[in-house]
C-alpha cells in the first residue's frame, strides 16, 4: 500500500519536529508492506507574510486530491488581530470536514500514576460556529451587549459519539491482543460530557444523540457508557485521571478538557492529536510554535511522532502505529535520552535517533 502524506511544518518548532514524522514513517520495517510519498506544503504566519494567504489554495488542493493523510506542525498567531489572517488549521478542519479532534493522553506503564485516556472532541459546531454579534444600545438601556450562537446538531453529535465508540472498541482490541502490557482499564468505558442540566436543548441534544448512537448493538454489548456533567468532570479529571478511558464532548468542552488533560502528563511536547474525517486524518502535535525554544534544536519530537502514529491508526495501519508507540515508550521508560522539557539534556536529533534505533 502506498500512502501519500502531506507535510505542513508551519512556523517555529513545527519546522524542527515535522521532519521527524517523515523519518519515522520512512524507517518503518518493510515487512509492513507500506510505502510513503510525501508532498511538502505550506501554511502559517510566515506563509501569510510572504504570500498574503495563511492557507494557500494549493495546500488545500494537494491535500484534497493527492493525499491520504497529513502532518501539521504548529502555526504562530499574532498577538494582535492582523487583517486577513486567520488560523489555517481551523480553516483546514472546515474545508476537509475533519469533524473529530482526537487527543490521547497517556503516561508510560512505569509511571507512578498511570493514565491512559482519549478525548474525542466534536470539531465542527457548538460555540465555534463563530456566529457572534454585538448589539449597541444606549447607556440608558444598559449599554451594548454581545451574544454567540451555540449550535448542536443531531447528526454531528451522533457522528462524534459513533467515532468515540469505534475508538473504545479498537483500544480494547489492542489491549486484548497485547498480552504483556498490564492495562489500567479492564473494561472499555465511554464517558459522554455535557451540561444538560443547564442547557437542556443544546447539550440535551448532544446527550440524547450520543446515547442513541452508542446504544447500537456492537457498542452496547462491549462498552460501558457513562455520562458526566462537564464541571464535575474537570474535578475528577484532576483527582482521578486513571478512571477515564474514552471521553466524548462537544467542541468547547472538548477543547478545554483536552488542554487540561495534556497538563497531566508533564510536557506539551508529549501530547499528540489527530483531526479526523471520512478516510482522511491530519496528525498534529498539540503544542504551538514555541518561540522561546525555536532554533535551539531542543524541541521534544515525541508529540509529533505520536501524532504520526495516530494518523496511521485512522488510515487503518494499526500495526505500523503500534510499532511507533512501542519505540517511543521504550525511549521514555529507559529515560536516558530526554529533551529538556522532560528534565533531560538531549537534543531533538538525539531523541529522534534513539527512537529510530528502537524502532
Ligand atoms: P506553545 O505550545 O508554543 O508553548 C508553551 C510552552 O511549552 C513553551 O514554554 C514551550 O517551549 C513549551 N513547548 C511546547 N512544545 C514543546 C516541545 N515540543 N518541546 C519542548 N517544549 C515545548 O504555546 P504558546 O507559547 O502559548 O504559543 C506560542 C505560539 O504558538 C503562539 O503564536 C500561539 O498562537 C501558537 N499556538 C499554535 C497552536 C497550533 O498550531 N495548534 C497551538 C497553541 C499555540
Ligand atoms: Mg486548544
How is this structure best described in words?
With 359 residues, this protein is α/β, with parallel strands linked by helices. α1 packs across α10 (302-314), α5 crosses α6 (202-214) and α11 crosses α12 (348-358). β1 (2-10), α1 and β2 form a beta-alpha-beta unit. The strands form 2 sheets. The protein has a 10-stranded mixed beta sheet with strand order 2-1-3-12-11-4-5-10-8-9, sandwiched between helices. A two-stranded antiparallel ribbon has the order 6-7. The protein has a domain at 1-97 and 278-359: 3-Layer(aba) Sandwich (Isopropylmalate Dehydrogenase). It has helices at residues 14-26, 45-51, 57-66, 88-95, 154-177, 202-214, 217-220, 230-239, 251-262, 302-314, 318-334, 348-358, and strands spanning 2-10, 35-40, 69-74, 100-106, 116-122, 132-135, 145-148, 189-194, 224-229, 246-249, 274-277, 280-283. The mean pLDDT is 95. The protein binds 1,4-dihydronicotinamide adenine dinucleotide and magnesium ion.
